[in-house]
Design goal:
Length: about 400
């Protein structure tokens, strides 16, 4: 308890004031200057030159519109020879910052509502009605079970369901040969608008020097035409390090990244977009569960035949979704961040003193000698406590010299 009271009294009634001690040492002096030079290099080189700490920055705010063009052809056993244009393979026609291109499909034509057998699998194969639970509808089921076990073909029986019949069979994804090559030559335009703010000027990625004639004929190429906003889909996938032919089978997700990094202390014409591409969906051979990207879409919606029966053609669409990701920042000189960073840099210079003090007082051979010169304990003079300066062993001149704020030790 006494120790705690003594510590509390020392905390309340003691005052520390800096004492200047000049140490003549080549090692300590060189170390001090080296640390100061490192701090100056950091503040000037990193904060001001590289990070442009003298600028006020703002992030990009943008809007993206997309448009696909191109015609392709398929020749399948179900559909025969068929021409596809953008109204067929761009689903839906417009998305927010995205574009979906259908590259593969499973067609189930002329579906009507009725009763039909399920596709055979471990859960639907049956031998009698006792194997089918009436009214059940699992997440993988095509409809609501009726409780009957019916023939699927001559040798297999499955549970009957009330559903859109015939039910879809997607056990095998169709293998593409050269069909996807037609889609790979499809082009996509991605106009990107940036809004005006305190730092940003209003603009877009169709640069002022791009004419209408050039826009109709140009195709993006990182080496020859890096600012053309028209992209060939196969080239996007190729630049991301993947094969369009393989990706088109089960689909996937691609990212088109548009980066704006603008220094508005220079001419606004130098504020240019940079494009990069990467695949966003996981493609791991060892963990390839539910690969690709697909969804179901009623082609031509719903229609009625002359008898009034409702029909639909269901498409399980596999394709590539292109997500357009816009990011970046703009910077412009401002006095406030400049002064803040200058002040922070000056404050960092104090680190050199702290580091040198630690080494001198705790690491060097003469540390105890330096500590004796660095720290001095003075009792309360006014209360005439037991102070060595008030004893007869010290002269009045020594006392005045000790109390003088101008005293400096040279070591």
């Amino acid at each position: 308890m006494a120790g705690c009271c003594a510590a509390l009294a020392a905390f309340l009634f003691e005052y520390d004031t800096p004492r200047i001690v000049l140490i003549r040492s080549r090692k300590v002096g060189l170390m001090n200057r080296a640390v100061q030079l490192l701090i100056l290099a950091y503040v000037i080189g990193w904060v001001f030159v590289w990070e442009k700490g003298y600028q006020e920055t703002d992030s990009v705010v943008s809007s993206v519109t997309t448009k696909a063009k191109g015609v392709t052809v398929t020749n399948t056993s179900k559909l025969g020879f068929r021409i596809w244009d953008v109204a067929d393979y761009v689903i839906p026609p417009q998305e927010e910052n995205s574009l979906f291109i259908m590259t593969n499909m499973i067609f189930t034509v002329n579906q009507t509502q009725g009763l039909c057998p399920e596709i055979p699998d471990k859960k639907t194969v049956c031998k009698s009605d006792a194997d089918c639970a009436a009214g059940s509808a699992g997440t993988q089921s095509s409809g609501v079970a009726t409780g009957r076990c019916v023939l699927f073909n001559e040798t297999v029986k499955t549970c009957e369901v009330a559903a859109w019949c015939p039910v879809e069979d997607d056990a095998q994804v169709p293998k593409l040969q050269k069909t996807s090559l037609f889609w790979s030559r499809t082009t996509s335009g991605t106009p990107n608008l940036t809004s005006a703010s305190k730092c940003w000027p209003a603009g877009r990625n169709i640069l002022p020097n791009i004419t209408t004639a050039h826009l109709k004929s140009c195709i993006y190429d990182a080496a020859t035409d890096p600012f053309c906003p028209i992209f060939r889909l196969g080239k996007i996938v190729e630049d991301a390090g993947h094969s369009f032919q393989d990706m088109a089978v089960e689909g996937g997700i691609m990212g088109i990244q548009i980066k704006w990094d603008c220094n508005l202390d220079r001419a606004a014409s130098l504020c240019l977009p940079k494009y990069s591409f990467r695949r966003l969906d996981t493609r791991d051979v060892d963990h390839n569960v539910s690969p690709g990207y697909n969804f179901r879409w009623p082609f031509a919606k719903y229609y009625h035949d002359p008898t009034g029966t409702e029909h639909r053609t269901l498409i399980k669409a596999y394709g590539i979704r292109f997500d357009i990701i816009v990011f970046g920042k703009a910077g412009k000189f401002d006095i406030i961040p400049t002064m803040i960073n200058i002040g922070s840099g000056l404050a960092l210079l104090g680190v050199a003193t702290v580091l040198c003090d630690v080494i001198v007082l705790y690491c060097m051979k003469k540390r105890y000698y330096y500590r004796e010169k660095k720290y001095k304990y003075v009792e309360d003079y006014e209360q005439h406590l037991d102070s060595p300066w008030l004893s007869s062993e010290h002269s009045e001149e020594e006392e005045k010299a000790a109390m003088s704020p101008q005293r400096k030790f040279q070591i």
